[in-house]
Design brief:
Rossmann fold; three-stranded antiparallel beta sheet; 16% strand; PHA/PHB_synthase
Length: 454
């Protein structure tokens, strides 16, 4: 959940009923529209200076001009929702086509099924895995690497959250309780024959949904839940993001980041935390790194290093594509998760009913953290084990991955080589019929590395 973008801002005096960010969205749209002619001219000029028939394209000056024009065009572009780009996967050495189909649809979310078209079904069990993507600014395609890693061994489903500015106002509000309702509905749609994996932000609503289903005796609760880098208890190893929320207070965010969607978007007049403000936060938290990356792109374009330039484009096409969040969901999450710590304190509620994680007894639990995570500090996700004493020891596990940050918990080479196989083994262990009085799952001590939370 991106809440750390205003760390260097001067704290504004509280003014009852005043929203300082009210006109920001309209100003952003006006600025974007005003830049359209310049962006079009820059793109046309870039093509002119990149044309091999143009003698200037082969000169240092021509290459520099073309590189500068591309940087300008990319800096002022509106980035669309990326494609999944997963046309096939490899299962048992066989190339299998993948078809992405929505199987459950609500105004703010679709559940996508990554259906694999087998010629010969694999012998190895293929457990159903529901991956709950973060609703924290980026699209679900940010988990492309996560999905790709599990496709060979699992029947994968992913929550595809909607951009709030595309949801008409008449569809109603969307708060944290609605998020939990969606998850419960999805688990019931799966008939209890699934495992759920929550990446970062959804760790809290997933735990809430499972706890409520267990408390109600719902037979369709998932078989296991895997929480990765999630803010279950942000009092543990608080990061700069966590501390900012406590220091500023909820009124600061309500007055400084909430605005209304302007016409002609379908969600006109819906109060949101807009994507462009979130992007400002993402960029300023590591501004020096992004400036260096764009300077490197400029050098690669001049040098003709097409491979490095294309890698930059692919990463930032994904990173710069952001979506608006419904204001109710954002503010409730900031207040109840980061400020009041309602879940670990036992004061969290869902539709007026208490949410107690100690009600979880039949759903296996695994947590994953990154040693260098600067978003969800070490111990914040692991705290789930303390809050879920009812889960048997042989049905719980924890893994602290050395040498990775927040992004590396769910993507990258270490995730593919060290984290994903452990998750797959844990899920598979919950599929095997259990012998009475005999543990067959991986224990928490068996999966924990030598580096433990301090």
């Amino acid at each position: 959940m991106a809440i750390g973008e205003f760390g260097g801002a001067v704290k504004q005096p509280a003014v009852s009923g005043t929203t300082l960010s009210g006109p920001l969205y309209v100003m952003y749209e006006m600025a974007h529209a005003a830049l359209n002619p310049s962006r079009a001219m820059a793109d046309a000029s870039r093509l002119f200076f990149n044309n091999p028939m143009n003698p200037a394209a082969h000169t240092p000056m021509g290459k520099s001009v073309a590189a500068g024009l591309e940087l300008f065009e990319r800096a002022t572009r509106r980035y669309a929702k990326p494609d999944w780009r997963l046309p096939y996967t490899m299962v048992g050495g066989e190339r299998v086509p993948v078809h992405i189909n929505p199987v459950w649809v609500r105004p703010f979310c679709r559940l996508l099924h990554f259906e694999r078209a087998f010629d010969h079904p694999p012998r190895r069990p293929q457990p159903r895995l529901v991956i709950v993507a973060p609703m924290s600014g980026h699209y679900a395609t940010l988990l492309r690497g996560t999905v790709e890693a599990f496709l060979p061994t699992h029947d994968v489903y992913v929550t595809d959250w909607a951009d709030a500015k595309m949801v008409p106002l008449q569809e109603g509000r969307f708060g944290l309780d609605d998020y939990v309702d969606y998850l419960i509905s999805i688990f019931r749609r799966m008939g209890g024959d699934c495992h759920v994996l929550a990446v970062c932000q959804p760790a809290v609503p997933v735990a809430m949904a499972v706890a409520r289903m267990e408390a109600m005796g719902d037979p369709f609760a998932p078989k296991s839940m895997i929480l990765m880098g999630g803010p279950i208890d942000t009092r543990e190893s608080p990061t700069a993001v966590n501390q900012l929320a406590v220091e500023r207070g909820i009124d600061f965010f309500r007055r400084n980041v909430i605005t209304r969607v302007p016409w002609p978007h379908p969600g006109a007049m819906r109060p949101v935390y807009p994507g462009f403000l979130q992007l400002n936060g993402f960029m300023t938290m590591n501004l020096d790194r992004h400036l260096i990356a764009h300077y490197d792109l400029f050098r690669h374009l001049i040098q003709g290093d097409g491979d490095s330039a294309e890698k930059h484009r692919e990463f930032y096409d994904e990173y710069l594509a952001v979506m608006d969040l419904d204001a109710d969901f954002y503010l409730e999450t900031v207040e109840r998760v980061f400020i009041t710590h309602a879940l670990p304190k036992g004061t969290m509620t869902h539709r007026g009913e208490p949410v107690r994680l100690d009600a979880i007894r039949n759903v296996a639990l695994m947590t994953v953290e990154g040693e260098k995570d600067d978003i969800s500090g070490v111990g914040q996700t692991y705290a789930t084990h303390r809050l879920c004493p009812g889960v048997p020891d042989d049905r719980r596990a924890h893994w602290l991955q050395p040498e990775v940050g927040h992004y590396g918990v769910f993507n990258g080479s270490r995730f593919r080589a060290e984290i994903a196989p452990r998750i797959s083994d844990f899920i598979l262990s919950q599929e095997v019929p259990r012998k009475a009085g005999k543990a067959e799952g991986a224990s928490i001590s068996a999966l924990r590395p030598r580096i433990v939370p301090s």
